[in-house]
Write a structure and sequence with these properties.
By secondary structure, the chain is mostly helical. Helix content is 58%, strand content 0%. Helix 3 runs antiparallel to helix 4 (73-84) and helix 3 crosses helix 5.
């Protein structure tokens, strides 16, 4: 999958009203749709957090004294970028509505066979 920067280009970071019937129409059930969106949002949240920590670890300095804390402008800019990113739920709703999320049921075939 692409990195988060290219994924969220052009996405509005503000919360918008969504058409519930359009969301429910994708799976036939609003609760299934919301579950899929929530699971993808959790995945995105973990990925964003890992990516941020990896980038900030490049600036980590191992020192024993607290007094030597220095500000790094690049580190501040990276942090600001990640603060301005849309909420993972907004990203996952956009992915779900544009059919970028592929989902399947683990036990659906076993249940119908019984």
């Amino acid at each position: 999958m692409t990195d988060i920067k290219t994924q969220v280009q052009g996405l509005d970071a503000n919360v918008q009203a969504r058409d519930i019937t359009a969301i429910a129409a994708k799976t036939g059930n609003i609760y299934e749709s919301l579950n899929i969106i929530a699971k993808r949002a959790n995945q995105l949240s973990v990925d964003i957090k890992q990516e941020l920590h990896n980038k900030l670890d490049e600036f980590a300095v191992s020192s024993d004294t607290i007094e030597e804390v220095q500000e790094n402008k690049e580190q501040i800019e990276i942090s600001k970028f990640y603060e301005r990113l849309p909420n993972p739920v907004i990203i996952s709703i956009n992915e779900f509505m544009s059919d970028q999320i592929h989902h399947h049921y683990k036990n659906r075939g076993a249940e119908s066979a019984e």
